[in-house]
Each structure stands twice: as C-alpha cells, then as structure tokens.
Specification:
Layout: H1 3-11, H2 21-30, E1 32-36, E2 41-43, E3 51-57, E4 59-65, E5 71-78, E6 82-83, H3 86-89, E7 97-100, E8 104-110, H4 111-120, H5 122-148, H6 151-162, E9 170-172, H7 177-184, H8 188-200, E10 204-207, E11 210-213, H9 216-223
Antiparallel strand pairs: 1-8, 2-7, 3-6, 3-8, 4-5, 4-7, 9-11, 10-11
Length: 229
Amino acid sequence: MATGLLEGVIANMPMFRQVARPQLVELARHARVQHVRRGATVCRRGESLNCFFGVAYGLLKLALRANGGEEKVLRLVGAGETFGEALVFRERPNPLEAVALADTMLVVFPSQAVISLFEHDLNFARGLLASLSERMHDLVSEVEASTLLSARQRVATYLESLAAENANGRARLPATKTVIAARLGVTKETFSRLLRELANQGLIEVEKRDILLRDRAGLAAVAQGALHA
C-alpha cells in the first residue's frame, strides 16, 4: 500500500486522530500492512513481538487456550482498534493468541517507531495511556462479571452493551455464538439456552445473529439479578 494511503488508514484510528500530520507521515513510513485470511493466526502465545497492531478492517479474537483445548476469549478487536501496545514497552512474550474471525487488514507498527512517537508527541502519548487505562478498566469489569455475576446476568449485560448505541434496540452479534460464549465464559449450549429463555420471557427476539431488545428495562433487571427466569 502506498504511504499516502496508509497514512489515511492510520489517521482514522482513534488512537492517532490527534497526532500531527508530520508524525503520521513518519509513522506510516515505518508501518506495514498485513492481510490475514479468516481463521489465520496473527500471533501465538509465547512469541516475542517487536510491534503492535491496528485493525483497518475485519475482526479478530484475543484468547487464552488451555492445554485441554478450552478457550477463553478475552477481547474482540474490530476496525479502528489496536492490540499489543503494552508489549512495545515491556520485553515480555506475547501472552495471548490472536486469530482472525474474518478477512482482516492489519497495520503493523514497529516498536521503535511507536516509542519515538510516544517520546515526541504528547497527544499520542496521552491517547495511548488513555487507551491502556480503558483496557485495564475493562479487565477489572471482566473479572468482576466472571466472579460476581451469574451466566444469565453476564449474557443480559452483554446484550445491553451491544444495543447501547442503537435507540431502536437492535444489535448484531459480532461473531459466532461459539466465540461469544467463550467471551462470556459459558458454553455455546448454555449461551443458546439463555437466549431462548430471555426470548421466551419477551425480553428479546433472536434471528440468527440479530438481536432485538423488546424490553430494555426487563433486560436491565436481569443484568442486575432482579428478574429471574
């Protein structure tokens, strides 16, 4: 990809929107594009990485996998989002597996170019720290949900978050039910059963991966543990 086009792709990522154009040009000069097919592994746990990644388009899952094959999906990463930033500043092995859930275009940012930008551009440094802080907050919320909330509450909370930006209460699962179930720490069968229960209560409608929230107040009550099946 031509440097000018790559610069435009990078500029549209929220983390880089406040970066001045000369710095964007320099960063684009060092960055490279990586096209990944659905199902391909971008990086494996234990690998040494000297970069971090931005998603131009597509979708990936970041996951931990046990020796027995069980998988915990920690995060879904879509267009405009980044991952692996912390490894730029800490020389440690990659702790997660990243797998493409759709054909994906990545922008690969070399560590040295990112460190240089961090040291010379205050806006970028603030944006990066804000992103990492938000990620830490999300992780705390994830631990809280997995330890203090029931599976039913976690599913209701997740559906609420999907539809939060849509006034009409419509949402679409960003990945397969298997992946979403692994994200929520339940089996696919449990996830499907809980969706049916919520639908039978008149709280949602389900059409494959499309979800309609028919009763937001009722779903919120489920998320808070105040409404049972």
